[in-house]
């Protein structure tokens, strides 16, 4: 299967590569507006993969891929990049990063960016339902992912986002597999091997009402990870204040992996 991978920068020194994993309805382009060139300029070899059925990758979402299928895509992307890599996963991509880290020793660490919780908060479901009742019902009961996209867009973007940019970002959204979305919220407790050797950072959006801060705090405790709360809504990488989260991630990467390389 042919997967779209957008790459910026070049491998240098002992630093691991970065592999960015998008969330539901997104593709690799969401990283290339800001994050990929920004990290490349700072010496990181940065890549973003479009999961099957997303962006320019092969595959059809009508085949109803699940998380295991998407994990196969992550494995293929890691093989193409070669060498150790840090996974930076957003939303559903954060779940994939957790699962891939548990399975693959060449995952040097992970950044969980607005990572999806194990269960949606009832207050969040109610808020989406009140804002987009028909779209939410069609999504949750009938598996209509196009309707789900309309409902979920309500929390993806900051109210301060330029309207022209918001239209562009919405136009870039894809459909999503209802099976994968269901599995995100019915998965078992994450596995946490080798936390000292392959550490984790949790990053939350201060203005992301789709994930309560207590869920981010619980995720950080699970992985014995630092928690960074940055300005921005759910799509931190597309937020008007995206540099705040990018800087938080880069600080952690530099302290964790440049320091380890120097010590070695």
Short description:
With 264 residues, the protein is α/β, with parallel strands linked by helices. 45% of the residues lie in helices and 14% in strands.
Alpha plus pi helix count:
11
Order of helices and strands: EEHHEHEHEHHHHHEHEH
N/C terminus separation: 38 Å
Number of strands: 7
Rounded to an integer in angstroms, the radius of gyration calculated over CA atoms is: 17 Å
Numbering strands along the chain, what is their spatial order in the largest sheet?
1-3-2-4-5-6-7
Q: Which whole number gives the mean pLDDT?
A: 92
Structural class: alpha/beta
Quickly count the domains. 1
CATH fold descriptor = Rossmann fold
CATH superfamily: Alpha/Beta hydrolase fold, catalytic domain
Low-confidence stretches: none
How large is the share of residues in beta strands? Answer: 5-15%
What does this structure look like?
- There is one protein chain.
- With 264 residues, this protein is of the alpha/beta class.
- The chain has a single domain (5-263), classed as Rossmann fold, CATH 3.40.50.
- The chain is 45% helix and 14% strand.
- The chain contains eleven helices and seven strands.
- It has helices at 29-32, 35-41, 67-81, 92-103, 122-131, 133-142, 145-156, 163-172, 178-184, 213-222, 242-263, and strands spanning 5-8, 17-21, 46-49, 85-90, 107-113, 200-205, 227-230.
- β4 (85-90), α4 and β5 form a beta-alpha-beta unit.
């Amino acid at each position: 299967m042919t997967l779209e991978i957008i790459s910026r920068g070049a491998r240098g020194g002992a630093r691991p590569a970065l592999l960015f994993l998008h969330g539901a309805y997104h593709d690799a382009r969401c990283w290339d507006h800001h994050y990929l060139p920004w990290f490349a300029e700072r010496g990181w070899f940065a890549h973003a993969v479009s999961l099957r059925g997303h962006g320019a990758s092969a595959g059809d979402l009508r085949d109803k891929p699940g998380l295991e299928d998407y994990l196969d895509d992550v494995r293929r992307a890691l093989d193409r990049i070669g060498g150790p890599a840090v996974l930076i996963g957003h939303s559903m991509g954060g779940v994939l990063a957790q699962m891939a880290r548990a399975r693959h020793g060449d995952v040097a660490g992970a950044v969980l960016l607005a990572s999806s919780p194990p269960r949606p908060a009832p207050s969040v479901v109610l808020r989406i339902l009140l804002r987009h009742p028909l779209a939410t019902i069609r999504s949750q009961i009938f598996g209509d992912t196009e309707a789900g996209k309309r409902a979920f867009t309500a929390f993806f973007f900051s109210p301060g986002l330029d309207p022209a940019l918001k239209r562009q970002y919405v136009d870039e959204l894809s459909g999503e597999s209802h099976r994968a979305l269901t599995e995100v919220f019915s998965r078992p407790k994450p596995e946490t091997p080798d936390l000292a050797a392959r550490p984790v950072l949790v990053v939350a959006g201060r203005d992301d009402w789709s994930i309560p801060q207590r869920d981010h705090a619980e995720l950080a405790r699970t992985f014995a990870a630092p928690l960074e709360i940055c300005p921005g809504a759910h799509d931190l990488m597309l937020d008007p204040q995206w540099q705040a989260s990018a800087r938080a991630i880069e600080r952690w990467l530099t302290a964790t992996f440049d320091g380890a390389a120097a010590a070695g």
